[in-house]
Write a structure and sequence with these properties.
HIBYL-CoA-H; alpha/beta; globular; 361 residues; 2-enoyl-CoA Hydratase, Chain A, domain 1; six-stranded mixed β-sheet; isomerase
Length: 361
């Protein structure tokens, strides 16, 4: 098995522990494969009643995909050709779909940093899933900050947040805490981090698991104890400004609002890739009417376009590799983003018979 994924079955609970703390549990291809293989085994194992997914780090549940690996692999692919980049996204999205349809209770402890791919292995759900946050949770889909879009099913779960909250999260790349995650529907219950060991002990020693949600909620904070939600306070402004279907209109609406929240939001968006802001908005608008398979199928082609275009490599370079925080976006100005540039990201990246996720549709 993978040293970065610890697995065991105890008291009919399958325990998956992310064990790569030095990289904030960023997902490698091997980690994706191990999680997938384990979930498939447990899905068909009558000795496993439920799955508990957690981290061994107080700092992070999962900071996303291993973007250093993605950057290096993209560079190697450009020079020599490599299938690893395609393999990573194809297999990661297949894992997201597996989780969405998982037939057994699936409990995720989203303690610490939860971003990108970490959201994919927690948020791509239907029924029977339980998302736990703590006072340490820091949740975001920060992809537009590195020249990408919120993939791993982001077009599905962000577009289903109340009102325009998902649009705000996607276009700002801002992080939120427990209160905002609960308000946005990205978490179900808040438990103090100090109580997590007791929660695990209770789940792994209970005589039966007829109502796991009730067991978890015994440890939960009461409403209001996790603090006030800034998103709740700003909901009216968010819904008003982000109701438009094009980014220039959203930014113009924000610019006309002197409130600090609107101006801070505008300042954040001005730092992001202009092209990927526009692509992301269209992704969410289209994803709102799609099934999870359709979203992931669309996002798989979009991701191929991202690395072919160049903003992804440039964003990762500026943020993670050189750390100069001065990405040179192409185009550099929002007014230079044409409708055709955006539409190109939604065109098939493969013939229909060759799409790596073709069997889903």
């Amino acid at each position: 098995m993978n040293e970065h994924i610890l697995t065991c079955v105890q008291n009919r609970i399958g325990l998956l522990t992310l064990n790569r703390p030095q990289a904030l549990n960023s997902l490698s291809l091997d980690m994706v494969r191990t999680i997938t293989r384990t979930l498939l085994d447990w899905r068909d194992d009558d000795a496993v009643d439920a799955v508990l997914l957690c981290s061994n780090s107080e700092k992070a549940f999962c900071a996303g995909g291993d973007i250093r690996f993605l950057y290096q692999t993209a560079q190697q692919t450009a020079r020599h050709g490599s299938g690893l980049l395609d393999d990573f996204f194809t297999e990661e999205y297949a894992l997201n779909r597996l989780i969405h349809h998982y037939p057994k209770p699936y409990i995720v402890i989203m303690d610490g940093v939860v971003m990108g791919g970490g959201m994919g292995i927690s948020q791509c759900h239907s029924g029977g899933k339980l998302h736990i946050v703590t006072e340490r949770s820091k949740i975001a889909m920060p992809e537009v900050n590195i020249g990408l879009f919120p993939d791993v099913g982001g077009g599905y779960f962000l577009s289903r947040c109340p009102g325009q909250l998902g649009t705000w999260l996607a276009l700002t790349a801002n992080a939120i805490g427990a209160a905002d995650a609960l308000y946005a529907g990205l978490a179900d219950v808040c438990i103090p981090s100090a109580q997590l060991p007791a929660l695990k002990t209770a789940l792994l020693s209970a005589r039966r698991h007829s109502d796991i949600a009730a067991q978890v909620r015994e440890f939960a904070m009461q409403a209001g104890e996790w603090g006030d939600s800034e998103l709740a306070r700003q909901r009216g402004a968010i819904d008003r400004h982000f109701a438009f279907d094009d980014v220039p209109s959203i930014m113009a609406s924000l610019a006309a609002d002197p409130a600090p929240f609107a101006q801070d939001t505008l300042a954040a968006m001005r730092k992001r890739s202009p092209l990927m802001l526009c692509v992301t908005l269209q992704q969410l608008r289209r994803g709102a009417g799609m099934a999870i398979e359709e979203c992931l199928h669309m996002e798989r082609s979009m991701m191929r376009r991202c690395f072919a275009h160049g903003d992804a490599a440039e964003g990762i370079r500026a943020t993670v590799i050189d750390k100069d925080m001065q990405p040179v976006w192409s185009p550099a100005r929002l007014e230079d983003v044409s409708p055709q540039m955006v539409e190109d990201f939604f065109q098939p990246a493969w013939p229909a018979h060759a799409h790596p996720l073709r069997c889903w549709l």
